[in-house]
């Protein structure tokens, strides 16, 4: 990656940020710390990969970023708004519109066709027009299977449908948690290339968690989760640089003023 690309990405507006996130899980009498101080800013239209070994906390971090779980301490800021201050209803509405989620296990509803699965997120907001779902099935090359139920599709086909579903509400941010974890190598690479094509052509921010270094290298910005903290991989030196720790300024002051009026 050259310096120009890095500079351009650095100038893009922040869309989602985490500030001094901590998260532990209690098992019996023991408290297991998983995230021990995460500070990170995600910018519009950039693909971030988060690499980490199994159990390092990638899923936990994505859950916190999407407001699916609460941190013990720290904040998630969406366009300078602390999502912990959202009501439950507003949080669910924000997640449904701003974030598209792609999971390792697809999570398609078995009783629905491929097209109905894609349109489901919009139906939850009262939109019944099937055309956008059809266009998304076209974008992922799956219109020929529109009537199939998930169990009539291969793993790669199910993940294509799941990617189309994640895009259905035109979210600004895509989050993908080990999206190729259940796929063979060749299919996995096809699915990742499709995801990256759609992310770039539609200008989405993508946060992609993977344990696979080859997939992690596809990110514009490569992050590594280790010891409960995030490090940034410097592609020129292949070394990782810590980015966690107490911020010098609050994230509020680092986010662009124009973003404060969003929502
Ligand atoms: N609800 C929970 N209760 C107790 N411990 C949990 C819970 N959720 C996660 N953990 C623990 O937190 C750690 C991080 O889990 P997490 O699923 O975030 O890791 P991961 O990096 O996504 O792993 P993988 O790549 O295997 O999916 C693990 O040690 C896990 O056992």
What are the key terms here?
263 residues, alpha/beta, Rossmann fold, 7-stranded mixed beta sheet, 4-stranded antiparallel beta sheet, 9 helices, 11 strands, disordered C terminus, binds adenosine-5'-triphosphate
Kindly describe this structure.
This protein is α/β, with parallel strands linked by helices. The protein has a single domain (3-258), classed as P-loop containing nucleotide triphosphate hydrolases (Rossmann fold), CATH 3.40.50. 32% of the residues lie in helices and 27% in strands. The protein contains nine helices and eleven strands. The chain has helices spanning 3-11, 58-65, 88-98, 114-123, 131-139, 155-167, 185-201, 213-216, 251-254; strands spanning 14-27, 30-43, 47-51, 73-78, 81-82, 99-102, 173-177, 205-210, 221-226, 229-234, 239-242. A seven-stranded mixed β-sheet has the order 6-7-8-3-9-10-11. Helix 5 crosses helix 6 (155-167) and helix 6 (155-167) packs parallel to helix 7 (185-201). The longest helix has 17 residues, at 185-201. The model is unreliable at 1-5 and 244-263 (pLDDT under 50). Bound molecules: adenosine-5'-triphosphate. The site of adenosine-5'-triphosphate has 13 residues, from strand 1, strand 2 and helix 2.
- Overall pLDDT level: 88
* N- to C-terminal distance: 34 Å
The DSSP helix count reads: 9
Helix coverage percent of residues?
25-40%
Would you tell me which CATH topology applies? Rossmann fold
Q: Percent of residues in beta strands?
A: 25-35%
Q: Could you give me the name of the CATH homologous superfamily? A: P-loop containing nucleotide triphosphate hydrolases
Write down the overall geometry.
globular
Number of domains: 1
Q: What value does the Rg take, in angstroms?
A: 18 Å
CATH 2nd-level architecture: 3-Layer(aba) Sandwich
């Amino acid at each position: 990656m050259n310096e120009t690309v890095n500079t351009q990405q650095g100038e893009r507006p922040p869309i989602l940020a985490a500030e001094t996130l901590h998260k532990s899980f209690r098992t019996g009498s023991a408290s297991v710390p998983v995230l021990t101080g995460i500070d990170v800013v995600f910018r519009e239209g950039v693909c971030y990969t988060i690499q980490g070994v199994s159990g390092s906390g990638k899923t936990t971090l994505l859950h916190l970023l999407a407001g699916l779980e609460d941190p013990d301490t720290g904040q998630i800021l969406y366009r300078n708004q602390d999502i912990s201050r959202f009501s439950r209803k507003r949080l669910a509405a924000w997640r449904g519109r701003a974030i598209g989620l792609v999971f390792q296990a697809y999570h398609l509803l078995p009783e629905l066709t491929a097209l109905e699965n894609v349109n489901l997120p919009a139906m939850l907001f009262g939109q019944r027009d099937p055309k956008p779902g059809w266009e998304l099935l076209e974008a992922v090359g799956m219109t020929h299977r529109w009537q199939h139920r998930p169990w009539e599709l291969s793993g790669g086909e199910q993940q294509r449908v799941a990617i189309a579903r994640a895009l259905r509400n035109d979210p600004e941010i895509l989050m993908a948690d080990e999206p190729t974890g259940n796929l063979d190598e060749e299919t996995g690479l096809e699915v990742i290339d499709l995801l990256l094509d759609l992310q770039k052509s539609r200008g989405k921010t993508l946060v992609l968690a993977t344990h696979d270094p080859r997939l992690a290298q596809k990110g514009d910005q490569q992050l590594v989760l280790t010891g409960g903290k995030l490090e940034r991989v410097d592609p020129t030196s292949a070394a990782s640089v810590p980015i966690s720790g107490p911020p010098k300024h609050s994230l509020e002051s680092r986010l662009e003023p124009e973003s404060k009026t969003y929502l």
